[in-house]
């Protein structure tokens, strides 16, 4: 584990950004504090609970998939981004299609989750998926919106994605 120098939040070794404050964890020099044992994940706040945001809403979502070393970039416009696996002839395929990234083998449901974009922020909702949706190792209860932040790790079934929210 490493500790963010800005806010003191603990992240897994190798994390690029602090999931709490968004600060870069890439160090050009100096020591990084390493802890011995991981701690239980802290549940993210429910939508409606106070989360401090001091910057503009992001315009792009970049999903980095470590398993395939691929990036998927999606515009963040008001509305909803479905996450899941597309099938031939599907009427409303997910915008974030995880089929080419071993989604079926890793337990991603066809319609797994939804990322919602509003003026209040960006949230994710598990849509009663079979194998669950996780934020930073915390399993989300179905059908409840949870805020996502720059640097969060999302997991759909067993498929891990690092989320980066960019203003341009």
Protein described:
The chain is mostly beta strands. The protein has 2 domains: 1-40, no CATH class; 56-168, Tumour Suppressor Smad4 (Sandwich). It is 0% helix and 34% strand. The protein contains no helices and 13 strands. It has strands at residues 2-3, 10-11, 60-65, 70-75, 79-84, 96-97, 111-118, 121-126, 133-135, 138-139, 146-147, 153-156, 159-166. The protein has a 6-stranded antiparallel beta sheet with strand order 4-3-13-12-9-10, with no helix packed on it. A 5-stranded mixed beta sheet has the order 6-5-7-8-11, with no helix packed on it. The two termini are 30 Å apart. The model is unreliable at 28-35 and 50-54 (pLDDT under 50).
Show the helix and strand layout.
Elements lengths: L1 E2 L6 E2 L48 E6 L4 E6 L3 E6 L11 E2 L13 E8 L2 E6 L6 E3 L2 E2 L6 E2 L5 E4 L2 E8 L2
Parallel strand pairs: 5-6
Antiparallel strand pairs: 1-2, 3-4, 3-13, 5-7, 7-8, 8-11, 9-10, 9-12, 12-13
Short description:
The chain is mostly beta strands and 168 residues long. The chain contains no helices and 13 strands.
Comma- or semicolon-separated keywords:
five-stranded mixed β-sheet; 168 residues; Tumour Suppressor Smad4; mainly beta
Amount of helix: under 10%
Number of strands: 13
Q: How much of the residues is beta strand, in percent? A: 25-35%
Strand order of the largest sheet: 4-3-13-12-9-10
| Structural class category | mainly beta
């Amino acid at each position: 584990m490493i500790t963010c120098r800005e806010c003191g939040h603990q992240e897994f070794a190798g994390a690029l950004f602090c999931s709490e404050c968004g600060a870069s964890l890439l160090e050009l020099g100096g020591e990084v504090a390493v802890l011995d044992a991981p701690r239980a994940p802290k549940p993210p706040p429910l939508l409606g609970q106070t989360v401090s945001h001091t910057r503009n809403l992001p315009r792009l979502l970049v999903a980095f998939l470590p398993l395939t070393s691929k990036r998927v970039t999606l515009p963040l416009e008001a509305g909803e981004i479905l996450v899941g696996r597309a099938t031939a002839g599907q009427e409303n395929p997910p915008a974030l299609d995880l089929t080419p990234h071993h989604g079926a083998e890793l337990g991603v449901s066809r319609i797994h989750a939804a990322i919602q974009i509003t003026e209040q922020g960006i949230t994710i909702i598990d849509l009663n998926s079979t194998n669950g949706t996780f934020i930073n190792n915390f399993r989300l209860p179905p059908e409840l919106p949870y805020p996502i932040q720059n640097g969060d790790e999302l997991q759909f079934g067993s498929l891990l994605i690092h989320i980066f929210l960019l203003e341009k």
